[in-house]
Amino acid sequence: MEGTETRIKLTAKSIEKLAREQPSGDVWDTELGGFHVRSGKRGLTFRLYYRTKTGKRRMMTLGTYGALTLAQARRDAVEALGIVAQGGDPRAAIEAAKVESQRQQQQTLRAYLHGPYTAYQKRRKDGAGTLRRIEKDFSSWLAKPMGDITRADVERWQAEQESADKPRAFSTLKRSFDALCGLLAHAAERDVIPTNPLARVNLQRPALNDDDLAEQGKPTPLLRTG
């Protein structure tokens, strides 16, 4: 496979020349086995050819010239060949990492809120209000995987809400928190996440009641003298 292709020592200077000339065939490096470049519509692409421990031929795309320098691509190729030498398959590892990344993305609060949970809440009387409440009150958590939400996150969120310029009543916070817990329970029941991470978490009732908290948000009246 490699023997019919052009072979040169790939250097920064030769790569620049190849990028201008856009060769019709693959150009293989004489310094690192399997490492080569291919010209295409997007320009030069760094690639690596290798055989797995079982003898399977594999081709791995490292990246495009411009997004990667020659030095970066060569380093990545060396690391990949190190995995091969240990009996691994770097391309399979990358593909598995992509699948895991996609799985994690599907498990974010935003993905579940906008996907399955929206479909579920549309069939409920105040479903739209529940969806708005979660999105508004937990906006900073939308990119977080649902399984990564912790007790510490909840305690920090409650403290921030109660120390705001206009503190929110405990009853209001509890409605929002209960709405979030409902979503997490829904996801856990459908095996989207292993368990509801907040199943045993409760908001801490403040020493001040709702009226006291509301009063804190009001300006202090001026005292009259004389």
TrEMBL record:
GO molecular function: DNA binding
GO biological process, one term: DNA integration
PANTHER family: PROPHAGE INTEGRASE, PROPHAGE INTEGRASE INTS-RELATED
Domain Integrase DNA-binding: 10-95
Entry coiled-coil feature ranges: none
SUPFAM superfamilies named in the record: DNA breaking-rejoining enzymes
Alphabetical UniProt keywords: DNA integration, DNA-binding
A Pfam entry, by short name: Arm-DNA-bind_3
Gene3D superfamilies: 1.10.150.130, Integrase, DNA-binding domain
Originating organism: Halomonas hydrothermalis
InterPro entries found in the cross-reference section: DNA_brk_join_enz (IPR011010), Integrase_DNA-bd_sf (IPR038488), Integrase_DNA_bind_dom (IPR025166), Integrase_recombinase_N (IPR010998), Phage_Integrase (IPR050808)
Family of this protein: Belongs to the 'phage' integrase family.
Stated name of the protein: Integrase DNA-binding domain-containing protein
